[in-house]
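Private note to self, pasted from the team thread so I don't lose it. Backbone tokens:
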């Protein structure tokens, strides 16, 4: 049964979080934190709905950026081979099968620092054609100018994903080829164009609790919260510099989901990369902590994700309905 959702006053949504308050939430006993997150979740969302998006890498590998977590950076020897932008017909085949499998949104990723202006007509055609299948569309193509954001918006792109990845303080330890400010500028361009914003980060890169709090504070204090907040658990890929970083305690990952839910009550919080290494029980705790979106389908961009059948079985066991 779907529970009734109260429509709370927008004034309850804050944009003035202090770092000490957020760190305090991280230090709250696990049961209290998850309870608070679940209470918040139920005020704004049906308790048992999970939104499902399918990802496709439309331009893989050979990326000039040096993000230390990423298998697609040309700086690291990860065995990912560089391809050019996929053709629209090939993309449509994948989008149709994602729709058939039950996805409501199709997210397309490109291993670019930013798209070239000459790529924009092809990208606009891809958006239009995927949308015509009745799917919501999302793209993640790197940095965007105002004009590029406008072009994608006019083509009908619903969401743009661009992650801040971590706190401003820790950022320099992970990426040197573009700044935190560059990321924030792209996010402003996307917001101004009228597209919905998908923005989150990665847990498990060796960051401190303070860095997790800092990342969520940046997101929660934006003038408008991102509509979608992906929280990725680092997928440690052979050949990347972060392959050997100590794994996070899964409860600390779940705490991050809970804090994101409390800070951004109306946003979809996505349990993103890293589910392949998580038990069913850990994923169920993520949903209890307020995650209400996942990537669905057996591949993320270049790495694995649970098979759709496995997810269907888990949702049936939990009484979760997908949207
Ligand atoms: N090249 C574009 C960019 O970086 O903006 C778009 C694609 S990029 C792969 C999208 C996001 O995927 C990154 O910002 C990062 O948060 C996430 N990501 C990449 N590699 C990951 C990994 N190994 N584990 C978890 N998340 C990862
Ligand atoms: C996001 O936050 N996570 C997705 C999506 N946005 C583009 C990407 C995860 C990538 C994991 C590594 C890979 O498959 O290459
Ligand atoms: Fe390139 Fe994006 Fe990977 Fe960074 S995260 S190396 S920008 S594909």
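Design output:
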């Amino acid at each position: 049964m779907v529970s009734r959702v109260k429509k709370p006053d927008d004034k309850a949504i804050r944009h003035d979080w202090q770092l000490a308050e957020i760190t305090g939430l991280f230090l709250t006993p696990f049961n209290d934190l998850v309870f608070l997150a679940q209470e918040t979740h139920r005020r704004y969302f049906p308790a048992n709905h999970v939104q499902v998006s399918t990802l496709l890498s439309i331009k893989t590998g050979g990326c000039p950026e040096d993000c230390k977590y990423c298998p697609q950076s040309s700086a690291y020897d990860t065995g990912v081979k560089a391809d050019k932008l996929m053709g629209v017909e090939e993309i449509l085949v994948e989008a149709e099968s994602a729709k058939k499998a039950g996805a409501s949104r199709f997210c397309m990723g490109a291993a670019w620092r930013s798209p070239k202006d000459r790529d924009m007509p092809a990208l606009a055609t891809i958006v239009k054609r995927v949308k015509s299948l009745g799917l919501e569309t999302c793209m993640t193509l790197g940095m965007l100018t105002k004009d590029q954001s406008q072009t994608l918006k006019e083509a009908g792109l619903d969401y743009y994903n661009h992650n801040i990845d971590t706190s401003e303080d820790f950022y320099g330890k992970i990426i040197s080829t573009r700044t935190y400010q560059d990321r924030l500028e792209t996010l402003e361009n996307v917001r101004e164009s009228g597209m919905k914003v998908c923005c989150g980060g990665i847990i498990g890169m060796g960051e401190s609790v303070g860095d997790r709090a800092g990342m969520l504070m940046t997101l929660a204090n934006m003038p408008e919260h991102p509509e979608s907040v992906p929280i990725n658990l680092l997928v440690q890929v052979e050949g990347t510099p972060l392959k050997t970083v100590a794994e996070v305690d899964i409860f600390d990952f779940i705490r991050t989901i809970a804090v994101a839910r409390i800070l951004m009550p109306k946003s979809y919080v996505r349990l993103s990369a890293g589910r392949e290494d998580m038990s069913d029980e850990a994923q169920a705790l993520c949903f209890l902590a307020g995650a209400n979106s996942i990537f669905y389908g057996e591949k993320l961009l270049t790495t694995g994700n649970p098979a759709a059948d496995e997810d269907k079985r888990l949702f049936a066991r939990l009484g979760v309905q997908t949207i």
